[in-house]
Amino acid sequence: MTKKKKYMLIGGGALLVGALVAAKVMTGSDEAVIVQVEVVTTEKIVEIVSASGRVQPIMSVDIAANVSGKILNITADEGDEVNEGQVLVYLDSTKHVAAVNQRKAALRSAKAQEALERANLKVTNSATKRQHELYKKGLISKSDLEGADGNYEVGIARLNSAKESVSQAEAYLDQAKDDLSKTKLYTSLSGTIVKINKEVGEIALGSQFQEDIILTVADLTEMEVLVEVDENDVVLLEIGDTTAIEIDAFGDEIFRGLVDEVANSAVTRGLGTQEQVTNFEVTIRMLEFPKMLRPGMSASVEVVTNVSDNATAVPIQSVTVREPKKIERVVGGEGMAIASDGIEEEKHNGTDDYVEVVFVIEDDIAVMRKVKTGITGESKIEILEGVDPGEKIVSGSYRVLSKTLQDGDIVKIEEEINGKSKVLSH
Description:
- The structure is a single chain.
- By secondary structure, the chain is of the alpha+beta class.
- Helix content is 28%, strand content 42%.
- It has three domains: 3-30 and 320-370 and 391-424, no CATH class; 49-58 and 222-307, Beta Barrel (Elongation Factor Tu (Ef-tu), domain 3); 93-182.
- It has helices at residues 3-27, 94-136, 142-181, 231-234, 398-404, and strands at residues 33-39, 41-64, 69-74, 81-82, 87-91, 184-186, 191-196, 203-204, 213-230, 242-247, 254-269, 277-286, 298-315, 320-322, 329-331, 334-339, 342-344, 355-362, 365-370, 372-376, 380-385, 392-396, 411-417, 420-424.
- The protein is elongated.
């Protein structure tokens, strides 16, 4: 920026403040607005997304029956360590053993029928050959020859049918053997039995459509937290974001974690009502956790989504919104927006969109500035454009900032002293 332009801007800003004060005096509206102020600082801002959920193992297996039967034995108790391939549940297999024996008998019968049909076809084949010889010698009619050929074809069909019956009987036997094998329930995962839902003597309702879970095995050496994040915050998350995890059962102790998975489909509650909420499930892999951590424990998570080490920071409540037409000032009959650090034309496209602004204190005058915001921390928000560190801005009260305060208002600063408010006059 050239010196000439700088002097022009300073002069323009001074003229503006003078004009605003003069306008206040001329209109008789010299009542000061009481405000709270803070100084714009440079500090580190950490953007955090908070959520709550429950702890769960990364790997777990539900042991359920595929065939129905009475539970004869459960070989382990809740909390026991088990190994992959270990039999955990025995079901009553009486009817399944009988079914296997029945299918074996049916297979033997089918094979016997196949052997019979094969022998019959051999006899029919010999007879057909003789009929062909007799026909060549003119000893039988053509219709007799056609009858012999037909009998041979029927024999072939009967043999093929018998073969299919054997295949069907073998398939039924395989099915019966498979059902029998399912009366022993194995674990496909090495881990800990975390839940047993059934007792010895109860009936396991075998079903392929709805599981009747008998017990659950989980690998407790790797844990995660499943949380639900609001749709407005989930867009800030990325795989690999670091997290701080608090488990209710372990007080204020903090555990580290990483964002491992973000769901693509939403979980919607209260659909079509005023209480409708749309969240997305997010999985947090725990990098460390106490030995006594158990699935189902409540947890709260803070995900660090962004960090700005040297941010121009103001209190979150200092940033408010105004209609674009209300930040235009008329100077010399032309629409111009004048800030203390420059002159910039404001173009309003006639829409009702709001813009973010702050109020900067300049010689007891509240000057409205349009700002561009960055990330939001716990109590501060980053300002990318519009104000500089060291400037004083209005930080309260909420009613004053949201409704009362206007560009060019005369202000008095309120300060807290020993818990009481005091208005500072200049």
